[in-house]
Design goal:
The complex is a heterodimer of chains A (197) and B (251).
Chain A lengths: L2 E4 L6 H10 L4 E4 L2 H6 L2 E4 L5 H10 L2 H6 L5 E4 L1 H5 L3 E2 L4 E2 L7 E4 L12 E7 L14 E7 L1 E3 L5 E7 L1 E9 L2 E4 L7 H12 L2
Parallel strand pairs in A: 1-2, 1-3, 3-4, 4-13, 5-7
Antiparallel strand pairs in A: 5-6, 7-10, 8-9, 11-12, 12-13
Chain B lengths: L4 E9 L2 E6 L2 E7 L1 H11 L4 E5 L6 H15 L4 E4 L5 H10 L3 E4 L1 H5 L2 H10 L4 E10 L2 E6 L4 E6 H11 L3 E6 L11 H10 L4 E4 L5 H9 L5 E4 L1 H4 L5 H10 L7
Parallel strand pairs in B: 1-4, 1-12, 4-5, 5-6, 6-7, 7-10, 10-11, 11-12
Antiparallel strand pairs in B: 1-2, 2-3, 7-8, 8-9
Helix pairs in contact in B: 1-2, 2-3
The chains are: A alpha/beta (197), B alpha/beta (251).
Keywords (chain A): Amino-acid biosynthesis, Cytoplasm, Glutamine amidotransferase, Histidine biosynthesis, Hydrolase, Lyase, Transferase
EC number (chain A): 4.3.2.10, 3.5.1.2
Subcellular location (chain A): Cytoplasm
């Protein structure tokens, strides 16, 4: 099985590669279109800013390549957000794979909500093969200022004053807002579940 | 619901873990990779590695160590100590660090905070402040607590957050090494008035001290070193205790 990690101008690629290595999988980091198309599994990671990341993908025509993939694709954090329709982060048109829009967290009262949300939060209403043997209310590591609103493709919900989408699934596309590569044993389980699809 | 975080801190010198008592009298407490992985397994929510090596070889040694930590540790970790440039940060993040912390260099050149947050995102920039209460207020100290400034800790923290710092790691020098509890007043002032998470550090001696810093000061995370290294408090027991006190914890 060949697993690729899409290389673009976003961080945390090394962490994803090491998380794969810990479960005995060699993740190939590449922005080569043919290599991405030929892979069995594609991981689309990301920490960074939406408009810059989208511009980079478009410039290399990776936007269309990702949309056209037929094998299982897992977007992580910004990667997941870029697979949504639109992001409020610098008013960015995204890939439009998931039927969700990305909004900015807003504190209803000053300082009630620290932004970005940094830390461990639980995931609930789990409805995806990604969460096989992952109990309801498992804790995952989140770092984000923007979130995907609840929608038809939502397969996990997290609460940070409001309920928002912590995982999405549509056809062969999967997305998680948290960082499974940094979420201890439960996160590792989710990566394994994805690789076993 | 977002949990409070328990963060063991590992001071690193020449690739080994050490812990300074009141920033002096350092003694060896083990191998950082092994210790880090052990803490992760025990339920630590995050780790902080503070490099205090002062040799010319430190940059290369540190990035190699960071890579090994990232390879073996499955929770987020921050690397700090003597980081003073965009290049330093870039190398450490590429090596696998999730966040980096800056202290003296950011105070001397506040523009560094803007530059780092613009380039790498606020979420990976932790501003560390060493502070001491003197006379009427808490003042910023530099160079590992050796150099006093006339700037108040709250003012500097507020400015750094405006410039893009994503978290504040606040160490009270009055409390550090005493095991008499965290500095609740200054920690509370920062945690309740700044819109970023505040990590309290310095003074942890009992489990009750963690209850105080989370419930009274409302810190977002608490950091400690020697009590964990010398197994005076073990992380699973601590998290159970805090959970019993209605503090939200990850298990």
């Amino acid at each position: 099985m060949k697993t690729v990690i899409v290389k673009y101008n976003a961080g945390n690629i090394r962490s994803v590669q090491f998380a794969l290595e810990r479960i005995g999988v060699n993740g190939i980091v590449t922005d080569n279109v043919e290599e991405i198309r030929a892979a069995d599994k594609v991981i689309f990671p990301g920490v960074g800013e939406a408009s810059t990341a989208m511009a980079y993908l478009k410039e290399r025509r990776l936007d269309q390549v990702i949309k056209d993939l037929k094998q299982p694709v897992l977007g992580i954090c910004l990667g997941m957000q870029l697979m949504c329709k639109h992001s409020e982060e610098n008013d960015t048109e995204c890939l439009g794979i998931f039927d969700s829009n990305v909004k900015k967290f807003e504190s209803p009262v000053a300082n009630l909500l620290k932004i970005p949300q940094i830390g461990w939060n639980n995931i609930t209403n789990l409805h995806s093969v990604l969460f096989e043997h992952v109990p309801e209310n498992s804790y995952m590591y989140f770092v984000h200022s923007y979130y995907a609103a609840l929608g038809a493709d939502t397969v996990a919900i997290t609460n940070y004053v409001i309920n928002y989408t912590s995982a999405l699934q549509k056809d062969n596309f999967y997305g998680v807002q948290f960082h499974p590569e940094k979420s201890a044993a439960a996160g590792s389980r989710i990566i394994e579940n994805f690789l076993n699809i | 619901m977002l949990t409070k975080r328990i963060i063991p801190c590992l001071d690193i010198k020449d690739g080994r873990t050490v812990k300074g008592i009141n920033f002096e009298n350092i003694r060896d407490a083990g191998d950082p990779i092994e210790l880090g992985a052990l803490y992760a397994e025990q339920g630590a929510d995050e780790l902080v590695f503070l490099d205090i090596t002062a040799t010319n070889e430190r940059r290369k040694t540190l990035s190699a160590l960071v890579t090994e930590i990232a390879r073996h540790v499955n929770i987020p970790f921050t690397v700090g100590g003597g980081i003073s440039s965009v290049d330093d940060v870039s190398v450490l993040l590429q090596s696998g660090a999730d966040k980096i912390s800056v202290n003296t260099s950011a105070f001397k050149n506040p523009g560094l905070v803007d530059e780092l947050s613009r380039q790498f995102g606020s979420q990976c920039i932790v501003l560390a402040i060493d502070t001491r209460f003197e006379g009427d207020d808490w003042y910023v100290y530099l160079n590992g607590g050796r150099v006093k400034t006339e700037v108040k800790a709250y003012d500097w923290a507020k400015e750094a957050v405006e410039r893009g710092a994503g978290e504040i790691l606040l160490t009270s020098m009055n409390n550090d090494g005493t095991r008499q509890g965290f500095a609740l007043d200054i920690t509370g002032k920062l945690a309740q008035n700044l819109n970023v998470p505040v990590i309290a550090s310095g003074g942890a001696g009992t489990m009750e001290h963690f209850v105080d810093v989370f419930q009274t000061a409302q810190a977002d995370a608490a950091l400690a070193a020697s009590i964990f290294h010398y197994k005076e408090i073990e992380i699973p027991a601590l998290k159970n205790f805090l959970y019993q006190k209605n503090i939200n914890m990850r298990f």
